[in-house]
């Protein structure tokens, strides 16, 4: 018991940071799900990992503002390029194939850069393997303040957010300066994808984006749908992290499995 408490004391900031992400990333995944862009949940973390590996390859200092800015810029540009290609692709199937190609390319380039440089391999392997125990108090505080500000701004405008997710064409007609809303949405998504990939890794980021909406789709009403996403995210991360510490396994893998257990339990109980 004493050993567990000692490990828990060293893990408190990684646990808290992961819980903070579980309050923000699942609602973003819910938005992608409602906009029929859920494949972005797979493509963006993969692409972001490739960008992180590329930045390390060309000598960008790790865990610096410059690294964060570069990755955010790459992801933001990719989101805007994809929106242009979406219009030309037309059908949803072609858009999904495009995002699948981004996912495959991201993985391929990530491992290519790791093979080219042992330095890249040494500095990104822990992210790909689900190691999140290197998060410090400064990271936790930064994400706490950022997530609190984001949720405080989003909640009063949730009606506009719902309209944007469900009927983007109607949103463009009814909302003034709609282009700025779209730019803000893509920029916020790029910022959170970047910080999430760098702090908790691409696998847990993808899990937080995809599984909560999957298990929340039967919720009645938009408020309950988004609330259930957060509930599943927070409970799965908390239970999964504690379980991982008890059995001495990498947290990301256990958390991902815990999502299936918690989500499956919610679906079963709602029948």
Automatic annotation (TrEMBL):
Report membrane topology. Multi-pass membrane protein
The compartments listed are: Cell membrane; Membrane
The organism's taxonomy opens as: Bacteria, Pseudomonadati, Thermodesulfobacteriota, Desulfobacteria, Desulfobacterales
Homology family: Belongs to the ABC-3 integral membrane protein family.
Q: Which UniProt keywords apply?
A: Membrane, Transmembrane, Transmembrane helix, Transport
Pfam families per record:
ABC-3
Q: What is this protein called?
A: Zinc transport system permease protein
**Membrane-traversing stretches:** 6-26, 38-59, 65-85, 97-120, 132-153, 184-214, 226-247, 253-270
Q: In terms of one coarse class, where is the protein primarily found?
A: membrane
InterPro entries noted in UniProt: ABC_BtuC-like, ABC_TroCD
- UniProt GO cellular component terms: ATP-binding cassette (ABC) transporter complex
